[in-house]
């Protein structure tokens, strides 16, 4: 699916109230991992719901995800006797989200009142939301009691395992959860009477007396459809990953579009600004390494897992600069380090290098891994008989992609340094201890190690010496986005706040189209979708309670 299949963007200036094509209780804009739960919760509360999705099909970015969802103090944890108190949870998220303000003795752990209130709302509502979805057969799950948080070794994480749920029916590896989840949620929406309309791009709000009364959308065929909402409009349209201007203006790093749905163009940023919305966390994103040559492709899946034991990542000088197995959000930061002396990003592109052993035993088509099995798309892979030949081919591939990188090239000493780097890594691998970057020394690194050849007596399964004979393989890697996490600030019930912190009547937001209180942090696997489901639940409740004034009257 490309943006050629959706209506072009029009002016976001609000329309005034007039006759409607459709009238309903609740309008949900967006049909992915945020919009579908919001629509279902609203429907189960007894509301008529119209869901408008810009793309020709439902799913959005969530359909491509593993769809882990991180649920603190969930029901299976409680059944197992695993304690997950709010005070402990708050300290963990605060320690990572705002490390320079973290205060373990403060009632808010150093967070602002808004951040702390969002953490409280997430903690209180994530489990009830997950259980309601499961009870209704809309998102049944299995508990993953042994999956650790991404920072489980921190002293502040008092419940380091057990918060992850995945869709029931997903593979044992949990990699296809998004397809399973979207299929379940979509089926439930059809079963329970949500009026789903794909191919409808919402262009603007309909405003009546200062209250959001509905939306205007256009179809790919150019038809304008006006949908009025008696209770409210909930936006769940994703971030601005695929809007070049917004990405460049706000993120502050040269992040590539990544694997968000190509329809994630920041629509709600533009639409909500017409109501004086207050914006927050526009400089933050959920990040992930991505293959340079596939960045921006609709089918791209980020590198959640860098597979292979006889494998390394090197910079333009042929040297390792980071732990290849660290969580993807943290790995992505490596690409954006600025060299003030040279005036460039020396790690903008890293080169993943592996040998035949890893090709034979670590190939997989899951989690965006670059070592892929025969018969799958390997257009990103460079192969050669020797390291010198590999260097030549890497230079050629970089030259072919110069327009994407500002002419990024290998340094003159790459060919000289690469064998030395491999020798140093091989020494660490033989001992099972990475003295440079501590590869394989945390629990989550072992989870994301990917398939490797089993070796008897090995203490560190993330490392094995790279062969001194070819063939060798390589791929170009850069820093990309899963999606952005900035937009209008909302209150804990999803009500969009104006510049004075006052809710805009009738306007709500959920998911990556609104500001996330997580700040810079990626707390754990599923720390995107867990809060999304919780706030979908809360927003649905708030819009259900919203007053529905007669058209043409000022809201009270």
> How large a portion of the residues is in β-strands, by DSSP E?
15-25%
Mean pLDDT: 95
C-alpha end-to-end distance: 44 Å
Residue stretches low in confidence (pLDDT < 50, at least 5 long) are: none
Radius of gyration, CA atoms, in whole angstroms: 24 Å
Give the helix level as a range of percent: 25-40%
The major sheet is characterized as: 9 strands, mixed
Overall shape: it is globular
Strand-pairing-aware structural class: alpha/beta
- Helix run count: 14
Number of strands: 19
Structure description:
- The protein is an alpha/beta fold and 556 residues long.
- Helices cover 27% and strands 19% of the residues.
- The strands form 4 sheets. Strands 1, 2, 3, 7, 8, 9, 10, 18 and 19 form a 9-stranded mixed sheet that branches. Strands 12, 13, 14, 15 and 16 form a 5-stranded antiparallel sheet that branches. It has a 3-stranded antiparallel sheet with strand order 4-6-5.
- Helix 1 runs parallel beside helix 5, helix 1 packs parallel to helix 14 and helix 3 packs across helix 4.
- The protein is globular, with a radius of gyration of 24 Å.
- It comes from Amycolatopsis carbonis.
TL;DR of this structure?
With 556 residues, the protein is α/β, with parallel strands linked by helices. The protein is built from 14 helices and 19 strands.
């Amino acid at each position: 699916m490309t943006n050629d299949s959706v209506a072009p963007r029009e002016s976001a200036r609000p329309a005034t109230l007039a006759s409607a094509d459709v009238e309903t209780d609740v309008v949900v804009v967006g049909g992915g991992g945020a919009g579908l739960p919001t629509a279902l919760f609203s429907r189960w509360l007894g509301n008529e719901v119209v869901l408008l999705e810009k793309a020709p099909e439902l799913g959005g970015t969530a359909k491509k995800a593993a769809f882990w969802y991180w649920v603190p103090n969930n029901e299976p944890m409680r059944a197992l006797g695993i304690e997950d108190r709010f005070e402990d949870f708050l300290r963990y998220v605060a320690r990572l989200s705002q490390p320079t303000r973290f205060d373990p003795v403060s009632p808010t752990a150093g967070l602002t009142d808004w951040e702390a209130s969002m953490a409280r709302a997430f903690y209180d509502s994530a489990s009830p939301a997950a259980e309601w979805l499961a009870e209704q057969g809309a998102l049944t799950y299995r508990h993953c009691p042994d999956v650790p948080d991404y920072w489980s070794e921190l002293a502040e994480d008092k419940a380091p395992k057990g918060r992850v749920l995945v869709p029931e029916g997903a593979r044992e590896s949990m990699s296809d959860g998004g397809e399973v989840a979207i299929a379940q949620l979509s089926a439930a929406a059809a079963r329970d009477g949500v009026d789903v309309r794909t191919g409808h791009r919402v262009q603007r709000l309909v405003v009546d007396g200062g209250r959001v009364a509905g939306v205007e959308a256009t179809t790919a065929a150019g038809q304008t459809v006006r949908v009025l909402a008696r209770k409210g409009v909930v936006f769940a349209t994703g971030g601005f990953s695929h809007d070049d201007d917004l990405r460049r203006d706000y993120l502050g790093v040269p992040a590539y579009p990544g694997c968000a749905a190509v329809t994630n163009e920041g629509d709600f940023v533009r639409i909500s600004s017409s109501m004086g919305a207050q914006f927050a966390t526009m400089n933050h994103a959920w990040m992930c390494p991505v293959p340079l040559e596939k960045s921006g492709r609709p089918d791209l899946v980020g590198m959640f897992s860098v597979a292979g034991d006889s494998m390394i990542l090197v910079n333009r000088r042929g040297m390792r600069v980071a732990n290849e197995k660290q969580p993807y959000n943290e790995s992505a930061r490596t690409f954006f380090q600025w060299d003030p002396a040279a005036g460039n990003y020396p790690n903008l592109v890293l080169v993943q290098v592996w040998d035949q052993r890893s090709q034979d035993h670590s190939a997989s088509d899951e989690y965006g891994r670059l070592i892929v099995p025969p018969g799958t798309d390997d257009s990103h892979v460079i192969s050669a008989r020797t390291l010198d030949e590999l260097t030549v081919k890497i230079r050629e591939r970089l030259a072919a992609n110069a327009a994407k990188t500002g002419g990024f090239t290998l340094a003159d000493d790459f060919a000289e340094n690469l064998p030395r780097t491999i020798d140093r890594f091989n020494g660490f691998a033989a001992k099972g201890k990475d003295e440079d970057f501590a590869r394989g020394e945390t629990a989550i690194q072992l989870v994301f190690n990917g398939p490797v050849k089993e070796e008897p007596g090995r203490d560190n399964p993330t490392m094995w010496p790279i062969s001194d004979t070819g063939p060798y393989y390589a791929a170009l890697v850069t820093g990309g986005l899963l999606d952005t996490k900035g937009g209008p600030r909302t209150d804990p019930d999803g009500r969009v706040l104006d510049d004075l912190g006052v809710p805009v009547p009738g306007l709500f937001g959920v998911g990556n189209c609104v500001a996330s209180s997580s700040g810079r942090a990626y707390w754990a696997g599923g720390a995107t979708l867990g809060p999304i489901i919780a706030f979908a639940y809360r927003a649905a409740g708030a819009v259900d309670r919203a007053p529905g004034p007669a058209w043409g009257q000022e809201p009270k």
